[in-house]
Amino acid sequence: MRIQVKRTGGFAGIDRHAQVDTEGRADAQEWQALAEEAVAAARDTPPIGVPDGFSYQITVDERTVYCADPRLTEPQRKLISRVLKEGA
Questions:
Q1: 3-class DSSP state for residue 51?
Q2: Does residue 48 carry a pLDDT above 90?
Q3: pTM for this predicted structure
Q4: Which of 23, 38, 42, 67 could cross-link with 75 by S-S, CB 3.0 to 4.6 Å?
Q5: What separation in angstroms does the CA of 85 have from each of 6, 10, 20, 35, 44?
Q6: Share of the chain above pLDDT 70, in %
Q7: What CA–CA distance (Å, rounded) separates 52 from 11?
Q8: For the chain, how far is it from start to end, CA to CA, in angstroms?
Q9: Which InterPro entries does the record match to this protein (predicted)?
Q10: DSSP assignment letter at 75
């Protein structure tokens, strides 16, 4: 499973993106469960965010969904944080 996160917006307006490929990872099941939870609660179209807030595009394999601060679910927040930290 390939998980990609793109973050846009924020005070400085600097885009950031990263991806994680879970194939062959010992924790692949954990990543898959978290990604499924995050995608299930997201939208198929970009939501209206708040001024200086971040907007996110999450792609899991071929499905792309959108979410934005301050309305992130806990699974979305956790997935975004992990991908942006560990992704290349």
A1: coil
A2: no
A3: 0.91
A4: 38
A5: 12, 18, 10, 15, 24
A6: 99
A7: 5
A8: 15
A9: Emfourin
A10: H
